[in-house]
Design a protein that fits this description.
With 207 residues, this protein is mainly α. It has one domain: Tetracycline Repressor, domain 2 (Orthogonal Bundle). The protein has helices at 4-20, 27-34, 38-44, 48-73, 77-92, 98-106, 108-135, 145-158, 172-187, 190-206. Helix 4 packs parallel to helix 7, helix 6 packs across helix 7 and helix 7 (108-135) packs across helix 8 (145-158). The longest helix is centred in the middle third of the chain and has 28 residues, at 108-135. The chain is elongated and about 60 Å long.
Length: 207
Amino acid sequence: MFSEQQEKWLKRAEELFFRYGIKSLTMDDVARELGISKKTLYAFVENKDDLVHKVLELHLQSEREVCGTILQNAENAIEEMFLVMESNAQQMSHMRTNIVYDLQKYHRSAWEMVEGYMKGFLYGVVKANLERGITEGLYRRDFDVDIITRLHIATTFLMFDEIIFPQQTYKREFIFQQYIQHYLYAVASEKGLKLIRAKFAQHAQQN
C-alpha cells in the first residue's frame, strides 16, 4: 500500500503527533522533521488532513498485525490481556492526551476510521478474548459478553479525557495498567484469579 520510504515518513509523523499533538504541528514542521522539502511532502499527501488519515491508516494496520501476533503467542485469554497491556502501555507513555480531541475536532475522516476500527476489528478482538476466557474456565460465565465488550472499549478512551485524568498528574501507561487490572479482576473466575495474581506479581518484579 505504501512504499518503504513512505512508511518511514508516516511512522516519523506519527511519533511527532504522539509527542506534540496534531494541531500544534504545521506541515513546515513535519517536512523539516522528515528531512524533506514541502514539495516532496505535498507530492505524497494532499494536505495535513490527508497526512493524518494516512498516518492513522498505517497505525491501525500495524495494530491489527500486533493483535495477530499476540493471539498466536498467548497461551490463554489472561496471558493475551497481559501482552496487550505491555504493548499498549509502552505506546501510551509517548502519547499526548489531546491527540484524541484533535482527531475528533479537526480530522473527522481520520476519527471515523478509528471509530470503524473500534466497532469492527477491536470489538471482535475483545469479544473473542472474553469468549476464549469463558471457554478456558478463566473468566466467569455470569455476564453479558456484548455489553462488557462495549464497556471495555468505551472506558479505554476515557483515559485520554483531560478533565478526568489531567496529563500533568497521571501517567497514561499507569492508568491503563490499573484499568486492565480492575477489568481482569471483574471478569475472572476463581481459577482465573489465581493466574492473574501470579501474573501481576511477576509483572511487579520485572518493573
